Every structure is written in C-alpha cells, then in structure tokens.
Amino acid sequence: MTGPDHGSALEFTELLRATHSFTNVCRPRGLHQQPLHTARSLERALEDAVCSGILNISGRKLRDYPGLSYDLTDTTQADLSKNRFGEIPPEVCMFAPLESLNLYHNCIKMIPEAIVNLQMLTYLNISRNQLSVLPKFLFNLPLRVLVVSNNKLVSVPDEIGKAKDLMELDISCNEIQVLPAQMGKLLALRELNIRRNCLQVLPDELSDLPLIRLDFSCNKITEIPPSYRKLSQLQHIVLDNNPMQSPPAQICLKGKIHIFKYLNMQACRLDKKPDSLDLPTLGKRCLPQQLTDSMEDFYPSKNHGPDSGIGSDNGDKRLSTTEVCIYIHTLHPQSEKEQLAEEEEDELKEVLDLRKIAVQLLQQEQQNRWDTHKHTHEQASMTFSRSSRQEFGSTDPSFTMRRKMEHLREEMEQIRLLRQNLESRLKVLLPEDVGAALMDGVVLCHLANHIRPRSVASIHVPSPAVPKLSMAKCRRNVENFLEACKKLGVPQDKLCLPHHILEERGLVKVGVTVQALLDLPSSKPTQLSTL
After folding, report:
1. Report field, pTM of the whole predicted structure over 0.70
2. More reliable by pLDDT, 530 or 481
3. pLDDT for 329-351, tens place per residue?
4. Dist CA 436 CA 59 (whole Å)
5. Are 196 and 219 in contact (CB under 8 A)?
6. Residue 310 φ/ψ, nearest 5 degrees
7. Which residues pair with 320 in a beta bridge?
8. Which CA distances in Å does 415 have to 115, 185, 408, 418, 512?
9. Nearest to residue 483, comparing CAs of 473, 474, 496?
C-alpha cells in the first residue's frame, strides 16, 4: 500500500511542476512575479530610506504616497520621478531637512503652499508635469537649481527676483511670452534656459547677470540687445531657430565672438562714439555693388598664427592673423519719397553747418584784423593808420565767406572721395567719422595688402578682451602703412605724416596718399609652379 501511494504522489508533484513551468513559459515576459517583486522592492526602498535619508521610489507608477508607515522625516534627498502623482504628497512637504526633490514626469498641476516648510531645499526638479503657474511663495525657498521645463507655464512671476541664491534656471518648453525685468536681480545666476517658448524680446536686465550659458533657441526673438555685450563671462550661447535680424543670421552662424563684435558695433553706433575696432554702420548710405558681411568673407582663406600677417592661397588677398571683421549693416530698401526727403534733409543740414562754420571763421578773421590794426595804430603815424583803416574797410566780408565755404566744400569732397576709395576697394562700410575709423591704421594696412599682398607683414588688431589699441600699436600700424606706400612707389611729396592719421588732423592729405597708392600700376606676383 505504501509503495503505490508514494509513487502516485511523486507523479502528481511532477505534474504540478510541469504545469507551473508551462504557465511561466506562456506568460508574457516582464509579468512574471511582478506584483510580489514590486511590493517587496518598494518596501526595501522605504526601509533603506529610513536608514540612509535618501528616498528613491522612481519609476513605479505610484498614484499615492506609500511611506505612511515609515518615519522618513530625516530624509535629505527624495526622488519621486516617473510616477503618477497628481499633487506633491503632503508628507514630503514635512521633510524639514530635505535638500533635493525630484518630481520629474508626474501629473502635478499645482505646488502646495506647504512646500515653504522645506527651508533647506536647494534643488527642485518639477519638469514634465502639468503646471500652469508658478506660485509666489516658491521663491521664498533657498533654491539654487530650479527646473520647471515641459509644463504649461505662460508667465514668470515678478517675485522670482527674491531667489538671490538661484544659480540655474530651466523654464524651457513652456508657453512664456514675456520675461520679467526682476530677473535682472538674480545676481548668482550662471545658467539660463528659456528654450522653446513664445518670447519675442529679451529684457535688457539680463545683461547684468554673470551668465555662463544662455539658451533662447526656438523662440520668436529678432534682436539681441546691444547691452548683452556686457556678458563678459558668457561661454555658450544658443540662439538657433529664431528669426534673427540683429545680428543677421549669417553673423549668428559664425559664433559668439562675431556676435559680440556686432553688438559692440551697434553700441558704438547708438552712443555715437565710434571705436577703432567696432566700426559702426551707416543707416543712409550703401555702395552700388553688393557688399560682403565681413573681412573674413572677403578673404576666405586664412590661417592662424602669432601676431603676423598671413596670405591667402591664391596670393591676391591677405588677412591679419587675428580675426578682424568689419561688419556691414544690410540696409532695407526705402521708397523714393523717403530717399528724397533724407537727401534734402542732409543737404539742408550740410548748408547750415557750412554757414555756421563760415560765420565763425569770418568773425575770427575780423577780430584778427582788428587786433592787427590796433597794434599798427600804436606803432605808426595817424596818416598811416587812416590809410590802414581805409584798406580794411575796402575788404568785402561776403567774398571772404564765399571763399571759406568753397574751401570747406573742397575738403568735404576730398574726404568723400577718400571714403569712396576705401569702401569700394575693401568692400566695407565706414562710419560717418572717417578719421576715427582710420586712426588705428588697421583699415589702411588692409588697403596696402589689398594692393599688394604682404606689403604690411604685421598688423596690430584689437580683440574682444582689449577692444581698443594702445597709441603705440596704432603708431606702429600707421608707420608700417606709410613704409609700405614708400616701397610700393608712392612719391614722397604725396605721402602724409603719421600725425595726420593718428590725430585726425589731415584727412585731405591722407586722401592724397590713398589716391596715389590706388593710382599705382597693378602688378601681380609671379606664381611658381610646384613640382
């Protein structure tokens, strides 16, 4: 009796194992013992949190807070990401020592006021939720990192200026239309991400921040304020997918250095203080032929080395070793009426200026004549003094005024010719103050190298760190230009002096030198074929 019963029991056990194995094979992968495993691992995670102070219940699809039976009030880090919480659990808001809270990828629609209890919270990630507003009391926390990307925010409260310790702010992928000016008070902010919003304008107040990284790509921004040139610590700027007009798109593609050079030029133009490097653009003048955007485009082939000039591959053009870009402001076409009105306004202004200068010169000349006459009266006899007065009275003041005005017109015409020669040869647009643009000698050295490559072997150029050359380097550039003119064959009597360029006192003589340089017969260097 015992044997057969024992054998049947073994057969029955084997049959159960086979059935269980078959059930496991037919069951979909990933569902095998999942509820038991999840429950056990969740309990283990809560137990570990009690001991370590680090709560990690990420990716468990939880709708309710599971730690009611555990004492987690000493938790310093909590990761509740990738769940299905509809709100921040009130129990979490009672973790007084909490420093880091990750609520990424939940279904949270609002932030409760109880979060102000977390007065040690420095990191808060509540991205990829359903927030439509940031509460004012949130910025009473000592946050250093705030990530609220991928929500439904339409604005940022003015109270954000209270977050004095905030170093990183990510409000990307929302529907924000305007940034508050109070963001300029975030004096500790290093990284700002406002990507993929509905912004149209960047506030000037951001230029006062010590930003290292700025990302405002995928918005509707058309202009970078010139004040952003003050962001001296900025290392990364991302601005793609914006309808940029200032700086133009072709400059934005060249990177941060070119963008900042453009902003420097715009600032100089607005302040009406032209700089030797940042040549401002003109708003009313354009050349008849299409201009390039920079000297780099005009000299497409270049290498970088120490402070010396390096020629291009074809031998016809040359660029200085340091990147020197003289940007051109692309002018929008104007109607004929606007052009006529501007031309009439310019002509009227020119006439008034000429009359004013002529009157001043006439008054000065009359004063000089009167002083001379008075001195003569004390030295000579009464008869000679009377004849001198008669001679003085016979002078026609209107003739002197006309003569001075004609002289001024001639000088202005020669300066206009100088500007035209430089702009047409170098394909650049010079500012109104031609003397300030030529004072450092950079443009003139490039002209000499354009006439004959490597005429000026070394050109001192400004840099973003030192936007203005010292007077010593300006003088070296000018002397190198004049020396190159001598070697190229410019006659000695047509050479200007260094102070005519450095002190902006002899633009007419500079124009004579430039014209003589351009009138030299062109000679192409012999090209040697390499074996």
Report:
1. no
2. 481
3. 333 444 455 555 565 566 556 55
4. 65
5. yes
6. -130, 130
7. 309
8. 70, 48, 11, 5, 10
9. 496
